Amino acid sequence: MECSTSTVVVKAIRFIQRLVGLIGPEGCCLSFNGGKDSTVLLHLIRQALPDSYKKLKYVYFEQKDEFPEVEAFIAHIAAKYEIEILYPEGTFQHGLDSLLRDSDVKCIFLGTRRGDPHGANMSELQITDEAWPTCIRVHPILEWTYTDVWQYLSGPCDGDLAYCSLYDKGYTSLGSMRTTIPNPQLRLSDGSYGAARTLSDDSLERSNRRHVAKVTNASQ
Hints:
By secondary structure, the protein is of the alpha/beta class. 28% of the residues lie in helices and 8% in strands. The protein has helices spanning 7-23, 36-48, 68-80, 92-101, 146-154, and strands at residues 28-31, 57-59, 85-86, 107-109, 125-127, 136-138.
């Protein structure tokens, strides 16, 4: 699998190889939600561990109002790369607790980047917060930019790097259907939207996410 050899890619691959070499693939898990960042991690893990990536755990912590395209993509990835994706019940926190309790997982790979909400104070290796089940959070692409993500996913590679189709329809950041629209910055004159990789200003990555106020019983 020959892909980009940029500095950030090489660094991430070596980081993954060292960590999995220390812990063992059975002790590692990828949180895979179908978004671009976890998709980058999936492909980096495949690139770093071509002979053992299937031994890792892959888990999807379901959210309400998920896009059908995301669900279809996750199923497609499982079939294409012959990996089993676990679907724990309950919240992310409860699902992680059951995963750690029922397996040998000691660390979980996450696609967090520095520019994400709560990403500013993260480190590449970090123990979960006190209120959470104890494991190591691993952030191999923490210092990647939005541009880095799309240069990797769109760059030269033997066999295209699959990603969710919504990113070719103007979506630059994916949340639930209630909170996510195509990015207005990519709207074209004919009313359609350009692909996510064409966004020229990284700071506008999340400008397609909207706040939806919680509905209280009094206002229903």
